[in-house]
Design brief:
Number of helices: 5
Structural class: mainly alpha
Number of strands: 0
Low-confidence stretches: none
Oligomer: single chain
Radius of gyration: 23 Å
Distance between the termini: 21 Å
Shape: elongated
Mean pLDDT: 78
Strand content: under 5%
């Protein structure tokens, strides 16, 4: 009787889909963008081909990782930083490639180190997300009453 009368927002609803709609949309965007990178790599001149194809490979690997981790963690936690890692890691790789192979421009190194620091913070958040979600679930379970205060009202 008490289960029927608890408000629906308190009852956890199972999530049966592969992935949440927003995350699925971002995965499709990343896959389309990666396909464009591969397609455009073959249209570039030979000196730029290797840089662009490795950039596309890094992007593909990180996109597959994003899809895998979001399908695995759809129940336990919201986005903990996987989206930022998927966006920033290929860009940081591209900056490092340019500096190590072709460019003498030293102005982009501070931005690379900002990206690197942000990636470390986001990787830590992704690593800690299941533990934090479990702790929040335990706290929520402790705070929820075992029975609602008013299951029914009897009128005399």
């Amino acid at each position: 009787m008490s289960e029927e009368l608890t408000p629906p927002m308190r009852n956890r609803q199972p999530h049966y889909s592969f992935m949440r709609p927003g995350e699925f949309g971002m995965l499709m965007f990343f896959l389309a963008f990666t396909a464009w990178k591969f397609w455009s790599a073959f249209g570039l001149a030979k000196p730029y081909f290797m840089e662009w194809i490795t950039y596309a490979v890094v992007s593909l690997v990180i996109t597959i990782w994003y899809g895998w981790i979001r399908s695995k963690r759809r129940h336990c936690c919201d986005d903990a930083g996987e989206l930022l890692i998927t966006l920033i890691l290929p860009q940081a790789y591209s900056m490092a490639w340019k500096h190590c192979h072709a460019s003498d421009n030293r102005l982009d190194w501070p931005l690379f180190w900002v990206y690197a620091a942000l990636l470390v913070v986001m990787a830590y958040r992704v690593w800690q997300a299941p533990r934090i979600a479990k702790e929040l679930e335990e706290i929520r379970a402790m705070l929820e009453p075992t029975r609602p205060r008013f299951t029914h009202i009897e009128t005399p």
